[in-house]
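Schema walk-through. Below, the input block comes first and the output block second. Nothing else is stored per chain. Lengths vary across the set, and this one has 317 residues.
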Amino acid sequence: MKACLPQVTVQSFRPHVLHGLDRCWAETNCYIDLWIEILHALGLPPEAALGFTAAQDFEGDQFTFTKFPLEDLETLYGLKATELAIYEPVERHVLRQMARRRMCLVEVDPYFLPDTDGTSYRREHGKTTIAPNRLDPQRKRLEYFHNGAYAVAEGEDFDGIFPAWGEERPGMWPYVEFTTLEPIRRAPLALKAIAGEVFAWHWGRRPQANPIRAFQAAAPEQIERLAGSEQAFHAYAFHNLRLLGANFELLGSGLAWLNPEDSRAGLCRKIAETAKTAQFQLARTVARRKLGSFAPTLEPAAEAWEELFTAAQARAA
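--- output ---
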């Protein structure tokens, strides 16, 4: 069975340190986590591409679902990624791209992903993104990257990931991208120089107003609707506190990679840790219906955000 990245196997796979157990947030969102492991498997430092995290905002009902901008991946690593049009069974497209030494990123239902055992697997339907590395339709076997894992799906799970096409095509086609796998391998100092420019550009895109304070103002009314619904609570916590905390933990890792002495990394850590604390406080708030007790929990994060970007302005001056 051919592979996009033959050096990666279930036995040899080790996740990147950004997915280490010592992290405050071991995972971010499916797209960011997937690219971290693809870059890692290619021998590239994903920290170089984390500048985009500086631009996260509060969107009214969630924090920005941040993603690696494809243009950043090309600027930093020479990887060309774009959307893949789907008009045949998805696995056929994936195999065709594999033959061209390209890896696909495929939107699938996590209900059929064994690596989500304990959360989505055989429990609830949804959508997430995987990157097939080995694919054998005849044996119904798939090896794939997902979040911070590398896993295998077979049999009925394979059929769920790649539904059979009858006379009529599926009503909803998945979103699929592909990426080239021949990176430009820059010298460390050269890569840091380019990454510094990319970081600076994204810092210029930061929100004009503190997004954490905007969330503090909106949260009391929003969390009132969470009482009595565990599913609603988990969705709200993910799209707000996890997206916020994990995003800024990544930003801190990127800043520390550029300069281990950069004090701004500590401010990012403060935001990440406060968001984690706030997640536990949110659970207590919803259970006890003491809505006014939640927003103040985020005050250290709001202050750290302001100090973080004040420090950025001072450096630019």
